[in-house]
UniProtKB/TrEMBL annotation:
Pfam families: AdoHcyase, AdoHcyase_NAD
Gene3D superfamilies: Adenosylhomocysteinase-like, NAD(P)-binding Rossmann-like Domain
EC number per UniProt: 3.13.2.1
Organism: Dictyobacter aurantiacus
Catalytic activity field: S-adenosyl-L-homocysteine + H2O = L-homocysteine + adenosine
Xref: SMART domains: AdoHcyase (SM00996), AdoHcyase_NAD (SM00997)
Enzyme class, spelled out: hydrolase
Pathway listed: Amino-acid biosynthesis; L-homocysteine biosynthesis; L-homocysteine from S-adenosyl-L-homocysteine: step 1/1
Cofactor binding notes: Binds 1 NAD(+) per subunit.
Keywords on record: Hydrolase, NAD, One-carbon metabolism
Protein name: Adenosylhomocysteinase
GO BP, sorted A to Z: one-carbon metabolic process; S-adenosylmethionine cycle
Length: 417
């Protein structure tokens, strides 16, 4: 079995950490048992570009238990855990990734993962999907799955331009993913990454969140919970109004820039914090990104503007500006919750990856009746994942009585009846 990882001797440590994650993923464990009994992926080949974490290893284990041949590469150069890669290789998974790989290695590893001629791709950021569409004559992919906001945006753009060649399920958009992983998971791991990278005090700090989608909501909530004064920047009127109603100040970035001490982008858009904003910031401002790609903070513009730089901590680079002030970029402007922390907790990834696993089975069963386009996770999958999670937590739901069921479908009963 071919592979390209940093150090295979790390496998034992990686397996121990995977086992710990699996303890907190009861839904995916149950699905893995189903797959092992039914073998829905027997003879199927899956290429995956994902953050290679302990939780991802549990997902890959579910696919393997279902009979799939899996080739795995990274979706971010800084989110790979080398010990997890080693453990997966020991279990017969072809892994092509190592932490901190350069761009050339990152691209080569994607090509190696695609060498198995996958029938389905599982993506986080749509890099694999984009490669497949740059050379469509080389591959016969039946379907794809996209995990994150930025990747769904790319897939939808391809569909709108009528270049998407196969159906893609947008796992990111399903409620059991975005309401929990995006809000509570990203909210927690973003704060975790900032604290690990800087060890700064959040209490009393002015904390600027760019974007008030589900990720931004979670980040703002967690920052306020640790005592920060939170400002939100938005382009969407409804989301801005929601931030106001949630008790946050809303300002455009050019007004927030002189006030903020810590800045986090969570938009999926490029150039959110730019050269003109850097020059407005106070001395010592900290810049972090929680979006998938390293384009939300204009890192190239920052490097070009700076008169000097220094690596002060493992995940923190100091840039001196022409006005003499210094700003600090975390994690090279990459996804800070992955680059400096350990991503979302396993208990939340249990939901997201259960959605992915069940959507994989759905696509192999349904791809022939789906035209190229971006599709929601079927509602019955989302509902099943929620029910299984509640059951694992020991939570029971009320059920409707026969009278309530009748009322639900009646029109005769009202104020006058």
């Amino acid at each position: 079995m071919p592979y390209d990882i940093h150090d295979r001797s790390l496998a034992e440590r990686g397996q121990q950490r995977i086992d710990w994650a699996a303890r907190h993923m009861p839904v995916l464990r149950q699905i893995t048992e189903e797959f092992a009994a039914e073998k829905p992926f027997e003879g199927r080949r899956i290429a995956a570009s994902l953050h290679i974490t302990t939780e991802t290893a549990v997902l890959v284990g579910a696919l393997q238990a279902g009979g799939a041949e899996v080739a795995l590469c990274a979706s971010n150069p800084l989110s790979t855990h080398d010990d997890v890669c080693a453990a997966l290789v020991e279990r017969g998974i072809a892994v092509y990734a190592h932490h901190g790989e350069d761009l050339a290695s990152y691209q080569r590893h994607m090509e190696q993962a695609l060498a198995i001629q996958p029938q389905l791709v599982m993506d986080d950021g749509a890099d694999l999907i984009a490669i497949l569409h740059s050379r469509p004559e080389e591959y016969e992919v039946l379907a794809g799955i996209e995990e994150t906001t930025s990747g769904v945006m790319r897939a939808r753009a391809m569909a709108e331009q009528q270049v998407l060649r196969f159906p893609v399920v947008a796992v990111n958009d399903t409620p059991t993913k975005r309401y929990f992983d995006n809000r509570y998971g990203t909210g927690q791991n973003t704060i975790d990454g900032i604290l690990r990278a800087t060890n700064v005090l959040l209490a009393g700090a002015t904390f600027v969140v760019a974007g008030y989608g589900w990720c931004g909501r979670g980040i703002a909530m967690r920052a306020r919970g640790m005592g920060a004064r939170v400002i939100v920047s938005e382009i969407n009127a409804t989301r801005a109004l929601e931030a106001i109603m949630d008790g946050f100040q809303v300002l455009p970035m050019h007004e927030a820039a002189p006030l903020g001490e810590i800045f986090v982008t969570a938009t999926g858009m490029a150039g959110v914090i730019r050269r003109e904003h850097f020059l407005l910031m106070q001395d010592g401002a900290i810049l972090a990104n929680s979006g998938h790609f390293d384009v939300e903070v204009d890192t190239a513009g920052l490097r070009d503007l700076a008169t000097g730089s220094a690596q002060l901590r493992q995940h923190m680079t100091e840039y001196e500006l022409p006005n003499g002030r210094k700003v600090y970029l975390l994690g090279q402007g990459r996804l800070i919750g992955q680059a400096a922390a350990e991503a979302s907790p396993a208990a939340l990834m249990d939901l997201s990856f259960a959605d992915q696993a069940l959507s994989t089975r759905y696509l192999f069963e349904a791809y022939q009746r789906l035209t190229p386009g971006v599709y929601d996770v079927p509602s019955e999958i989302d509902e099943r994942v929620a029910v299984l999670k509640l059951r694992a937590l020991g939570v029971q739901l009320d059920t409707l009585t026969q009278e309530q069921l009748a009322y639900q479908h009646a029109w005769q009963v009202g104020t006058a009846n």
